[in-house]
Amino acid sequence: MPFNLSLANREAAGLKRRLATVDKVAGRLLYADQGAYLNFAGNDYLGLSQAPELRLAADDAAREYGVGAVASPLVVGHHAIHRALEAELADWLGLEAVLLFSSGFSANQAVIKALLTREHLCWQDKLNHASLQEAGLLSPARMQRFAHNDMASLTARLKPQSGLIISEGVFSMDGDLGNWPELVALAEQSQNWLMIDDAHGLGVLGREGRGTLSHLGLEASQVQIMMGTFGKALGVSGAFVGGSRALIDYLQNYGRSYVYSTHLPPPQAAAILAAVRLARHADDKRAHLAELVECFRQGVASLPCELLPSITAIQPLVIGEENRTLALADRLKALGIWVGAIRPPTVPQGSARLRITLSAAHQRADIDTLVSALQASL
Ligand SMILES: *Cc1c(COP(=O)(O)O)cnc(C)c1O
């Protein structure tokens, strides 16, 4: 097995992954390595992971149902609390039916591998998440990647009635939005199916935080498949797939990571349900977050670095070279600030970056601290 060599190569290229152990997160602070840091690396965009409502809901459910689902959903793992969460999601997002998964990664695997056959094509944006790309490659369908958000590049590859187009609501490493009005039009014209992965739009954008489609004035019914995760703005973990009753029935039968995996622990489902109810009424948090984004972008506008265009909580500073990116992240850490240093293969070669994420848990003064630290480090 050649794994030693692969690891050595990664290390030599400055690409070896480092695992940090966090002692705890408390609001905007992260405790690790005997220090406290302002946390600009997580995906808890509304600060819900710490909300007392979620903790209480998980506590109550643990007492009522126990801590484990005890089986896969189709055996005896599907509890009333899961049913309640599915109903709340369907109501929130305007979906006919919803299926719960333990993770976004497994949800994407289930959908793509269960739906596509050898006769299908699967068109994916080049910057789609690894879970989408991997599922596309492992599926029997032929994968075709189009240039990021480039509708001409997609059009050149599209064939009528041949398969599934997949893109993201908010791109996870860039923070920009997918070109959904055009994607919807192209899918309709070519009579192909359309799937949105809205991991980073859900809770943050749109009316009641319904996500990217709502933000752009589109309806959930304009895509055949909506996927979203509970580990980002909803502050917990897990995922759902939504669509027609027929689609969900099909996935319940043929989605292998649904059928053959233990269902979400009831306390987790209860916490997610509490998070959805809070997120629906969190316009104040969303407004605060938008203000922080604006403030951050103004603050770094004059700095010698490339800030990608983004209206979302994801604010990437592209540095380029891997070791320089790591050194910058270390320098910020010494100043009490934790940001993600994202390197290939997570992002394209030569575009290593600081992935700075803002949260409604931050205060204005935190953004000032961040901007000053960047000024001193760049
Ligand atoms: C995080 C993420 C996933 C995976 O979700 P998990 O629940 O963390 O497994 C899928 N798609 C996108 C775009 C993501 O950002």
Number of strands: 14
Could you say how many structural domains there are in total?
2
Mean pLDDT, to the nearest integer, reads 96
Question: Beta fraction of the residues?
Answer: 15-25%
The bound ligands are:
pyridoxal-5'-phosphate
Structural class: alpha/beta
> What is the CATH H-level superfamily of the largest domain?
Type I PLP-dependent aspartate aminotransferase-like (Major domain)
According to CATH, what is the topology of the largest domain?
Aspartate Aminotransferase, domain 2
Q: What is the CA-atom radius of gyration, in angstroms?
A: 21 Å
Second-tier CATH architecture of the largest domain: 3-Layer(aba) Sandwich
- In helices, the fraction of residues equals 40-55%
The count of helical stretches stands at 15
In the predicted model, the low-confidence regions spanning at least 5 consecutive residues are none
The largest sheet is: 7 strands, mixed
The CA-CA distance between the termini, in Å, is: 41 Å
Instruction: Give the class-level CATH name of the largest domain.
Output: Alpha Beta
Strand/helix succession: HEEEHHHEHEHEHEHEHEEHHHHEEHEEH
